[in-house]
Each structure stands twice: as C-alpha cells, then as structure tokens.
Amino acid sequence: MNAIRSLWRSAPVIRSAVASNYTFRPLSSAPATVGSVQKVEPVPPTVELDKLYKRVELEMRGIDPAVLLSYSWFCVAAASHLGIEVTKSWALRKAEKERHTLLRSVHIYKKHRVQYEIRTYFRFVHLQRLTGSTCDTYLEYIERNLPEGCALKVTKVECQPLPEHITPPTE
After folding, report:
1. Where does the Small ribosomal subunit protein uS10 domain lie (predicted)?
2. What is the pLDDT of residues 77-88, one digit of tens each?
3. CB-CB contact of 127 with 86 (8 Å)
C-alpha cells in the first residue's frame, strides 16, 4: 500500500497517464488518500455540420486597373482549381473619381488652386454553392495573396434550414 502511495507521489508521468483514464473515489468518508478505481467512458463528440453558402460575392477595389485585373484572374483560377463554380466576373465601366480642390497658397491668391483626383477601380466575382470549409480555405488563400493597393470585400449568403414555426404549404 505504501509502495503505491510513493509511486503515485513521485511519478507525475504515471499519475497523468492513470488520471486521464480513471476517476478515484474514496471507499469511506475517512481522510484516506487511496480510493477505488473506476474506468471512465469517453463522451462521443457531437457532430457539427458544415455551413452551406448559396453565393459568395467578392468585391475588389484598387487604384491600378491592371493589377486589379491580374488579381481577379488569379481569384478565378484559384476557384477553378478548388472546383468552385464561378458564375460572374465583371468590372464597372468607369472608375469612381474623388476630387479635392486646394489653394496653392494658404493665405492669399484665391485664384490659384490645385485639383487632385483619386480614381478607384472595381471588379466583382460571384461564386456559387460552397461549403464552409472550402470557402474558408479559398478566402484565406486569396487574402494572403492580396496585392498592394487593393482591397477585398466578401459578402456571404448562407443557406439555413426552415424555422420550426414555419410550415411548408400543403397542396
């Protein structure tokens, strides 16, 4: 009995191996440290279903149309390699222009002004019928390869089951 106690106290590796599979319950209410050993049944993990997305919309915006075009080709090629269905890929005809007018001199000469213009180009890609894991993998891959001067906005449309309080129509 003393050998078991000393082994239990001195060997943390044995203690962790035994403690993970067994629970210890004292035989009586006395302050004894040795108890009976019972096998613990592992609880089966619950199965979590993957999400389904009806459509995923990628909106890319940038300041250089050539870089944006190249990146959209990259996104479509990556989707085709993963077996993702690309339904649409298009660009807006004109860029969004944002103009700022400033005085050349801070204090005088109101006639002398300078205009600055920022052009933002857009491209869109629509993907259909994706699972959650495929969508996460694809989005992580294209986000890691996002070029400088470009931004990416992702909109997901998720499929969900019909709520219980709504019943389908009877015909």
Report:
1. 57-155
2. 999 999 999 999
3. yes
